[in-house]
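Amino Acid Chain and Its Fold in Token Form
===========================================
What this section holds: a protein sequence and its matching fold, both as plain text.
Structure line: whole-number tokens from a learned vocabulary of local backbone shapes, matched to residues.
Purpose: to set a sequence beside its fold so the mapping can be learned.
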Amino acid sequence: MNQPLMLTAAQKAGPKVTLALGALILALLLSLPLLSLLTADHPLHVSAYTLTLVGKILCYAIVALALDLVWGYAGLLSLGHGLFFALGGYAMGMYLMRQAAGDGLPAFMTFLSWSELPWYWAGTDSFLWALCLVVLAPGLLALVFGFFAFRSRIKGVYFSIMTQALTFAGMLLFFRNETGFGGNNGFTNFRTILGFGITEPGTRAVLFLATVLLLVASLFIGWRLARSKFGRVLTALRDAENRLMFCGYDPRGFKLFVWVLSAVLCGLAGALYVPQVGIINPSEMSPTNSIEAAVWVALGGRGTLIGPLLGAGVVNGMKSWFTVAFPEYWLFFLGALFILVTLYLPKGVIGLLKKRGES
């Protein structure tokens, strides 16, 4: 008679433990930029490398969360989110290159003997316009692609293949020098952002804090959507689209909204990634990167919001070690990880923890 009561108490304690753990992790993340401002000989000093590495992983965590919204809740497996991430990065990179060039042309344009800026570079010396491009570039592309894809009722593996083809086409386009985006070298050698030195400890700390705030805001948006009627419609769309249509719902609008929202979140993550890492090039659009994002979500547990963040942290932490110790084996390990998760952890790490908590 007492066992159900004990299980109920444990289930009630679960959210409190999760909230406490989340608050602890948030406090730790917020303390990192402050610790990075300490002198190098201080025992609690956090190096610029560590701060950059964690900031990069947090940007990837936002991408994982964005992908979870479309895959975990709407059932749309995208293998092209790397394109939206890179577009946001390129939009911010254009502003940073203009800041580095001053009144002249960016260095790569001078090298290619260009005499003037292309028309689509107009206004990129303005930070506000750069922020608009960060949202508009991935958002409009997702809107146009999603409108035609969902109107044609493309889904399943066909949707995944089309998104992968889209990001591959974008990568090939940006590799060309004549497109005006730096070719295979991309953008680098950034100097200032809003007049502040981009390598200064204070600037790095502010960029890191902005990344944490974006992650928290993205998590809040996802949580609100998941708990709303819109979220319930999305899960119904994922599990039984035909039944949902029979009930009078048009799934195209729901798909398109969450698809565009996901693309915009990726673009914002890319915009924060570039000034912290210091480079953006077409390799960020590689289909491999988008597949990695799917691995993050699958490992953590899709449809859970928290799971993809965990997956992004674990996989990228292992990648940082693997690419130094055994660089030639990383892709083999990544493929094996995806297969093992699919076979033995269909609900990811979060699903495994919930199952053990209930037993």
Residues 1-11 have pLDDT under 50 and may be disordered.
